[in-house]
Amino acid sequence: MNDKIKVARLSIYSNTTLILLKLVVGLISGSVSIISETIHSTMDLLASVIAFLSVKISSKPADEEHPYGHGKYENVSGVIEALLIFVAAIFIIVEGINKLFHPKDIGSIGLGFIVMFISAFINYIVSKKLYKVAKEQDSIALEADALHLKTDVYTSLGVGGGLLLIWITGLNFLDPVVAILIAIFILKEAYHLLISAFNPLLDVKLSEEEIKIITQQINKHSSVFCDYHNLRTRKSGIIKYIDLHLVFPQNMSVKTAHDLCNTIETDVEKLLKNTEILIHLEPCEKICNECTLTDNNINCK
């Protein structure tokens, strides 16, 4: 079993345990912020299951029906997870507003405080593992799952802090206020995740930093080719796809041109992991008779 699947499964186990713990304490205390946290964790569990399934599917090799592989399943997973976060946040806001107008006393504040900080600690450990594997494997699904747990760390700390303030001040209205503030924070995180996961589905180009690396590696060999154009980039799952047209002098052999293409591909792949490059060879169409190869240098630019 690869690391992506292992860590995705760990997220499912931890979320299930915390949901049960929060649900019991939330029902005992009647705290809307703890109930909201339970709802948030339930969304986290659903997201973890989606992430687990998506990394399993996306790991499948390319086949006849999916010649470019199954990588975009991870992006679909990320979009679904972001939408789930939106739903959870809106539900928390609605419940918080309702509790502001219909306040209730909160019981077992100490127990709720302890559970929230246990939850924050566990989710912090699991999210760190998820982020580590997500960065190593360039997995948007695991990154989305890690973001779920990261927001859960902040929300659990927020709820715990709110319960502590209620215990100190006796002001029960702080409970729904904290819940609403947490939900607003969750909405912000969900928006960034949605953009990150959705863009590759539209074949948005790679980042400017990645494109700069590509062009630098191409230009390292500019003395051996005439020009390049139609550089296009996109990403599917963990795979970065690059294609371009490379113009060579007409008297250069196909083997020499092909060897240069291989060199460029190798140079790029050393700096950008999980890269597939397609280079289209073109002869120079100039009729100035200057486009000749002399001692491995091009005279025409």
Automatic annotation (TrEMBL):
The chain crosses the membrane at residues 12-35, 76-94, 106-126, 164-187. One of its GO terms (biological process) is intracellular zinc ion homeostasis. It is a multi-pass membrane protein. InterPro entries: Cation_efflux (IPR002524), Cation_efflux_CTD (IPR027470), Cation_efflux_CTD_sf (IPR036837), Cation_efflux_TM (IPR058533), Cation_efflux_TMD_sf (IPR027469), CDF_Transporter (IPR050291). GO terms for cellular component: plasma membrane. Gene3D superfamilies: Cation efflux protein transmembrane domain (1.20.1510.10), Cation efflux protein, cytoplasmic domain (3.30.70.1350). The keyword Transmembrane helix applies. It is found in: Membrane. Residues 206-284 form the Cation efflux protein cytoplasmic domain. Residues 10-201 form the Cation efflux protein transmembrane domain. GO terms for molecular function: cadmium ion transmembrane transporter activity; ferrous iron transmembrane transporter activity; zinc efflux antiporter activity. Keywords: Membrane, Transmembrane, Transmembrane helix, Transport. NCBIfam families: CDF. Belongs to the cation diffusion facilitator (CDF) transporter (TC 2.A.4) family. This is Cation diffusion facilitator family transporter. It comes from Clostridium uliginosum.
